[in-house]
Amino acid sequence: MPEADTADGRLDREEKYLEQIKRAMTDRNHTLLRETYDSMTEAVKNRRLNLIFLQEISYRIYYMLMDLIPGDRGEGVCLEALDWRNQTCFNRFEDWSRLLWEQIEGVFSHVEGQEERNQGITVKVIAYARQHFREPITLKEVAERFFISSSYLGRSFQKATGVPFKQYVNELRIEEAKRLLRQTDRLIYEIAEETGFAESKYFIARFTAMVGMSPMEYRKMSEKG
Questions:
Q1: Within 10 A of 100 (CB to CB), how many other CB atoms are there?
Q2: First-to-final CA distance of the chain
Q3: In this predicted model, what pLDDT tens digit does every residue of 153-173 receive, in sequence order?
Q4: Domains in the chain, number
Q5: pTM for this model (two decimals)
Q6: Which domain holds residue 125?
Q7: Which segments constitute the HTH araC/xylS-type domain (predicted)?
């Protein structure tokens, strides 16, 4: 029996297809997803891939699409709750494949349009963080203020700044703390409170981790310099 028809051969192909699907969905690579899905359907027709596996992949794609939709959960996009594991839901295999692909294209188009609209919001959130980092702000609270999903805002914020929201805020706080240590004689706990840290112990730990020395060591070094 050819290697392609062995159980091990099928397992290798299934793992390869699954990785390609995950990468295409994560990157929203329409071309790679289309090529991979077409290749899988052709493999099923040639009996080189189990139909049950393709049904399972379709089921996973459906829930990946759900995760791609921002907080509005489908405003402006229709995502049918089809049972991709149940082949009897469809008259023909081609109908099943077509319906899934229509949903993929609909969600991709919706998300791309939503991203364009939300680019301006991300810029506003960055400005808001710079103005309010001294306050106990969180990603969830900021997302609610700007009427956007916190998970989606987190992704778009990190894409724009290169760091997660919490890290960005902490970096702003530490930079302000460094300025206060250089230019004032305020006590450590006062600087911690003024820069948005709830506890001086946590402030010292974050400062040391990010600067490479404690706040007192930084102040002494600044005085010598």
A1: 22
A2: 77
A3: 898 899 889 999 999 999 999
A4: 3
A5: 0.55
A6: 115-166
A7: 123-221
